[in-house]
Specification:
rRNA binding; RNA-binding; 8 helices; DarP; Diphtheria Toxin Repressor, domain 2; mainly alpha; rRNA-binding; cytoplasm
Length: 201
């Protein structure tokens, strides 16, 4: 009886892992390119807070200086190339720094909106000032009353919002005197801290 040679054939493993698939590598490449674009679009101060190799730092800063569309596109491609040369720990450190920066920006935006809501409430109803003074007894109430009255007159007469802006600045002067409530849906119920930026001065 002749044996079927197939029966004597040693079975090979169905598949051998030979690294990430082509599509996965493509996705990872695009993700690193996007991460590089985030670095290029950061503010100067924020960029200084991101841990980067000297080569990546130079590539990003060179890209920020280029205004011509095609030149900037080519430099962005180079930034992506440098990003792909980083090891995993370097990429993770950059991502963590960006997450922190974006989190701070989100909190600052929420605080800005809370201050704007306070201003609108103060102009809309007298009770809001009573509430604010109860929370912050050291505030110059007379000054706020004057600003509120002038802001109301400006709106009624459709004049330039000088007092309207001054009222917002007065609220910013309360920084550090109230507890932050940035994670609350009722942020307007408590005046939060709001970081002073250079362009606000």
């Amino acid at each position: 009886m002749t044996q079927n040679p197939r029966n004597n054939h040693t079975a090979e493993p169905e598949s051998l892992y030979d690294g990430p698939s082509k599509s996965q590598r493509k996705r990872e490449s695009h993700a690193l390119q996007d991460l590089g674009a985030e670095l290029v679009n950061l503010s100067k101060d924020a960029l200084a807070r991101v841990p980067m190799s000297e080569k990546l730092d130079q590539a990003v800063r060179d890209c920020r200086k280029i205004t011509a569309h095609e030149g900037r596109r080519r430099q962005m491609q180079y930034v992506g190339k440098v990003m792909r040369s980083l090891d995993e720990s370097e990429v993770e450190a950059i991502q963590r720094a960006l997450d922190v920066i974006k989190g701070v920006s989100k909190a600052e935006t929420a605080k800005l909106h809370a201050l704007e809501r306070w201003r609108d409430r103060l102009i809309a109803k007298d009770e809001a000032l009573t509430e604010l003074l109860a929370q912050h007894p050291d505030v110059d109430g007379q000054h706020l009353r004057t600003l509120i009255r002038n802001a109301r007159r400006e709106q009624a007469a459709q004049k330039p919002p000088k007092a309207f802006r001054e009222l917002f600045q007065a609220l910013k002067d309360l920084l550090g005197t109230g507890a932050s409530n940035e994670n609350s849906d009722d942020a307007e119920d408590d005046l939060p801290e709001f970081p002073v930026r250079e362009d606000d001065r």
